[in-house]
Amino acid sequence: MIQLIDIHKSFGSNVVLNGLNLSIEKGKVTVIIGRSGGGKSVLLKHIIGLIRPDAGAINIDGKDITRFNDRELNRLRKKFGMLFQEAALFDSMTVGQNIAFPLEEHTKLKSSEIMEIVREKLAQVGLTGIENKMPSELSGGMKKRVGLARAIALEPEILLFDEPTTGLDPIMSDVIGRLIVDIQSKLDVTCIVISHDIYGTLRIAHKIAMLHDGLIIESGTPEEIRNSGNPVLQQFIEGKAEGPITVL
Amino acid sequence: MLYLISYVGRSSINLVREMGRTTILLLQAIAWMILPPYRLKAIIKQMEFVGVKSLSVVILTGIFTGGVLALQSHQGFKLFGAETLVGSIVALSMTRELGPVLTALMVNGRAGSAMAAELGTMRVTEQIDALYVMAANPIKYLIVPRIIAGVIMLPVLTIISDFLGIIGGYFVGVFLLNINSGMFVANILQYLDLDDIFHGLTKSLFFGLILTHIGCYKGFYTEGGAEGVGKATTEAVVISSVLILISDYILTSIMF
């Protein structure tokens, strides 16, 4: 169970999170939706301790990680895997070396065993025989899948996804969505996805939370979200320029 | 007037903040240097990048600097009939001053800028965040090998530059300006102390630290996409070059 309690975060005069509260259930897919630039990535980086809040607590398995020192944070991060928006593959390393990296860092496995796991993880995301390719040779969708293979290399308990379908065609977006569901059920991990792809979200989420103006304004199952009377949420789901959220 | 005061105030705060962050990053890098695990492979890779790949530019700089020194000093010494002193002037200038400084400036332009650009790109494409997420400390993984490589390889490159500068001076002095070869060499041996070489190498060690640390610092804290990477790279080269020249004066006044 992950609990975010009264989280405040500002960058200069820009208030990003304004007393945010959210509970994330273990072993479920929770999707946080919201507008671009609304603080979703900032929220995700709080959960893994990359950003510390100005105020508030983040409890993971009952421990407030905002009080953790670097060593405790590193120990905690071994439980996490994260797929970044642009995959964040190390461009000086091959695909195989990228996936092997966390295994070489945190296990005492032999290189032959590591390569076996690399091949297995690649197969799990539907890729084979690309261990020796460089990230620059891959398409956007392949990079994301390699990023996912790297994120699950250590078989984490919690997986974070930062806009996993952004920049992909609808078919590849669906492939990534299915992979998230598939990996979640096979590994029984807690998945936290941030996205503004509402249709993909409704397909994969057990729970959806809407972030707006630094707060979670609504949360519930996909069904509850679809039937919500919240005008902001409805405008977001319907993708209309007119409504309580004004842009122009 | 109020604008001027606020501008000065803001600039001062930024300067102090930058100095603080630079110092903290350096101290963290030193701490991670001591703590295991030691990433020998990454250090050797960086030594190749800083040292071996800078060799051609250092060789050319050394030879031609020594040559031009011989040419210029010969003009002056000819007036007093002391042309044989050209050898010692070339040797002393190269070992004490030009070898370390020019090598550092050339390596800074090549490797310091590349470090800032590489780390800056890693920052804006979230590769540094990915290292944190995988519980791999980026300071240990990215910065420590680069600083160690700079501190080791700069003195090595400086020795090569010193030697080739003297050789360049010898060729110009002996073959073009017709200075007696024996006198040229004897003069160098008479006036050049081992201390001159060691002090020059000590300076180059500090220069190696400065250029790698500033390159890494600017890259590590890059903000703002491709434009930010370009800005960080330029700033790294300019700041390192200025710091190399300032520290050269300070170190020279302490050592010689």
Major sheet description of chain A: 6 strands, mixed
How widely separated are the two ends of chain A?
Answer: 39 Å
Beta-strand percentage range of chain B: under 5%
Structural class of chain B: mainly alpha
Beta strands of chain B, count = 0
Order of helices and strands of chain A: EEEHEEHEHHHEHEHEEHH
Assembly category: heterodimer
Strand order of the largest sheet of chain A: 6-7-8-3-9-10
What is the helix content of chain A? 25-40%
Tell me the structural class of chain A.
alpha/beta
- What's the mean pLDDT score of chain A? 92
Uncertain segments of chain B: none
- Overall geometry of chain A comes to globular
Q: How many separate structural domains of chain B?
A: 1
- What is the general shape of chain B? elongated
Fraction of residues in H or I helices of chain B: over 70%
Would you report the number of β strands of chain A? 10
The average pLDDT score of chain B comes to 95
Radius of gyration of chain A: 18 Å
Calculate the terminal CA-CA distance of chain B, rounded to whole Å. 46 Å
Give a description of the structure.
The complex is a heterodimer of chains A (248) and B (256). In chain A, helix 3 crosses helix 4, helix 3 runs parallel beside helix 5 and helix 4 packs across helix 5. In chain A, strand 1 and strand 2 form a beta hairpin. The longest helix of chain A has 18 residues. In chain A, 37% of the residues lie in helices and 25% in strands. With 248 residues, chain A is of the alpha/beta class. Chain A has a domain of 62 residues. With 256 residues, chain B is mainly alpha-helical. Chain B has one domain. Helix content of chain B is 87%, strand content 0%. Chain B contains nine helices and no strands. Chain B is elongated and about 65 Å long.
